[in-house]
Amino acid sequence: MSTLKVPQSVPSVADDCEQLRKAFAGWGTNEGLIISILAHRNNAQRKLIRETYAQTHGEDLLKALEKELTSDFERLVRLWTLDSTERDATLAHEATQKWTASNKVLVEIACTRSSVQLFSARKAYHALYMKSLEEDVAQHTTGDFRKLLLPLVSSYRYEGDEVNLTLAKTEAKLLHDKITKKAYNDDDLIRIFATRSRAQINATLNHYKDEFGKDINKDLKTDPKDEFLALIRATVKCLIHPEKYFEKVLRLAINGRGTDEGSLTRVVATRAEVDLKIIADEYQRRNSVPLERAVVKDTTGDYEKMLVALLGHE
Amino acid sequence: MSTLKVPQSVPSVADDCEQLRKAFAGWGTNEGLIISILAHRNNAQRKLIRETYAQTHGEDLLKALEKELTSDFERLVRLWTLDSTERDATLAHEATQKWTASNKVLVEIACTRSSVQLFSARKAYHALYMKSLEEDVAQHTTGDFRKLLLPLVSSYRYEGDEVNLTLAKTEAKLLHDKITKKAYNDDDLIRIFATRSRAQINATLNHYKDEFGKDINKDLKTDPKDEFLALIRATVKCLIHPEKYFEKVLRLAINGRGTDEGSLTRVVATRAEVDLKIIADEYQRRNSVPLERAVVKDTTGDYEKMLVALLGHE
Q1: In this structure, is residue B3 part of a structural domain?
Q2: Does residue B249 form part of some domain?
Q3: Is A63 helix (H, G, I), strand (E, B) or coil?
Q4: Are A89 and A135 members of one domain?
Q5: What's B303's DSSP letter?
Q6: Which of A54, A187, A303, B11 could bond to A73 as cystine, CB 3.0-4.6 Å?
Q7: How many domains does chain B have?
């Protein structure tokens, strides 16, 4: 469930572009006007605004935003304004170019998007960077990380509901055997998470819990400092409980020492139109405080206003 | 260049379906009539015939062909009649279900199709088999073969012409180092062939030849019995010289002891509408006999007639 609030009667695209142009004009920028427009238009509407703005004013709206805005507010507005597939391609590109073992953005994009969305992001990656996403992932990652990330970003998972229970049992046992032996980088363990459908993995993990008495992610927590293990846990969580994965990213971003604006911006920009309502409910359940209140407490100025608008504040 | 001959004035789809129905009716089957229609319709026309036939006669044309025809002729007509993406999905499925180390069909499909065609075959695989191609490849192959085949069938290569010459030099050296050490299953060697664009790989292999004096496939021929090495050579050839790869498949199919109808059928059915003319020219250059004459000498009956028709005999 989306948190996006689009007014019942939306101004014409031409009007929106005109207002944005005004917000940029003269000394100073009218940030409130920008928020009142862009934070309340859906993906298709923003795409049309960007196209029309380029035609009318001969400038890419994203470039104009880059010139007029600064810092976290700028990044949030720009990421949000991007078409969702281009946004995914952009985030994935950033992740490959400055990849670190703790970076979970590639897993996030590979495992929380639909198969078609992931493929669309790969297409957008060709167009934007003149190479393939998997090419950059393979080049910029190494060892076990590459072994996991390459098939994840290249996957086109089957999305039907059908489940093979015999297979679920076999593979639950296989996973348990490998995990017991701490063979976390085992070929078959990676194969299962990288290629099976969500429905099938879910059945396998249900059987795992029934048969061996623990959530698999508990068994995968033997060493909290092992970043490869953390990446496998993120994979499992993104595939099966994306709302819990994103809740935790927000929790760590907000509750840590200082705020991790990068993660906060990314989650709000990528999920507002998808399932941010569910993530916010999960956040409140887990932290006993509404997500919006926590965000307001931790952020300021136009950045705060844009976040709150995307969180669906009336 | 295609060898397909479509008549200047093609009968209506309804007429084609009617004639096919007649060819199946009564005692015996009119194989000549079937060839005269199906071997002279392009992919779009055959697709329409199959749809119209199902609507008109309440039966899948492929099922009817299966009932009426037999043996190599049946397989050729059925493979040819299939839409090209469904055909690729079918061939890939056969290859995963009865996979052997010497089977090169997966490499062939992954490396001689365009990125969009390969992706379309993966989509068709979902629809036909309710799972993903990479899922089956990962499950049914093992070890080094899996390490190579999984990224190959999952790839969505960039198809632009741009080449990075610095990268080509670095990676040519890297390939040479690994090959000199006989590290054929090296992560980076596989990464290069599985993810780089054709243009980039071509540049790398040109530099390889200039710098180290030999074609890479010569250096990859240290052990003619090593099936993994043979698969890497097939990968390189399919990516860079598909016409030479297919010429060799035909040569071995025709010139071996007995005929390998499986390979002959597959190459003719999959390439007739693509580049069979180029492959046939390559065959004649390499064997000093026209492909059509070689095929006629090695095959008989309706199978021969259908092959000759697809080879473009007037």
Answers
A1: no
A2: yes
A3: helix
A4: yes
A5: H
A6: A303
A7: 4
Tell me if B74 is assigned to some domain: no
Residue in B131, B158, B191 nearest the CB of A131: B158
Cβ of A170 under 8 Å from any chain B Cβ?
A: no
- Does the distance separating the beta carbons of B132 and A195 come in below 8 Å? yes
Residues B279 and B236 occupy one common structural domain: no
**B27 lies in a domain?**
yes
Give the per-residue pLDDT at B313: 83
ipTM of the complex: 0.89
- In chain A, what is the straight-line distance between the N-terminal and C-terminal CA atoms, in Å? 16
The rounded distance, in Å, linking the Cα atoms of A263 and A87 is 14
d(CA B183, CA B185): 6
CA nearest to B109, candidates B128, B95, B123, B130: B95
CA B44 to chain centre: 19
User: For position A300, which CATH number holds?
Assistant: 1.10.220.10
CA A38/CA A78 separation, integer angstroms: 10
Give the residue from chain B lying closest to A154, CA to CA. B154
Determine the 3-state secondary structure of A102 from DSSP: coil
Terminal Cα distance for chain B, rounded: 16
B170 and B229 fall within a common domain = yes
Minimum distance, in Å, between the CA of residue B96 and any CA atom of chain A: 14
Both structure tokens of A269: 């920009």
Question: Rounded to an integer, what distance in angstroms lies between the CA atom of residue B301 and that of residue B304?
Answer: 5
- The answer to whether residue A157 neighbours chain B at the CB level (below 8 Å) is yes
For residues B57 and B113, membership in a common domain is answered with no
**Torsion of the alpha carbons at B53, B57, B59 and B65, rounded to the nearest 10:** -60
Q: Is A123 exposed, middle or buried (0-12, 13-18, 19+ CB in 10 A)?
A: middle
Cα B205 → chain centroid: 23
Do A126 and B195 count as a contact with CB atoms less than 8 A apart? Answer: no
**Inter-helix orientation angle B115-129/B105-112, to 10°:** 130
Task: Look up residue A157 and give its two tokens.
Answer: 């998972």
3-state secondary structure of B288: coil
pTM of the shown model: 0.93
Instruction: Give, in order, the Cα–Cα distances in Å from B167 to each of A143, A252, B114.
Output: 21, 39, 23
Q: Summarize pLDDT for B90-131 with one digit per residue, the tens.
A: 999 999 999 999 999 999 999 999 999 999 999 999 999 999
Q: Give the structural domain span for A200.
A: 165-240
Residue B62: pLDDT above 80? yes
Alpha-carbon A156 to chain mean position = 18
Tokens of A307: 């976040």
Q: How far apart are CA A2 and CA A86, in angstroms?
A: 19
For residue range B154-197, what is the model confidence (pLDDT) as tens digits? 999 999 999 999 999 999 999 999 999 999 999 999 999 999 99
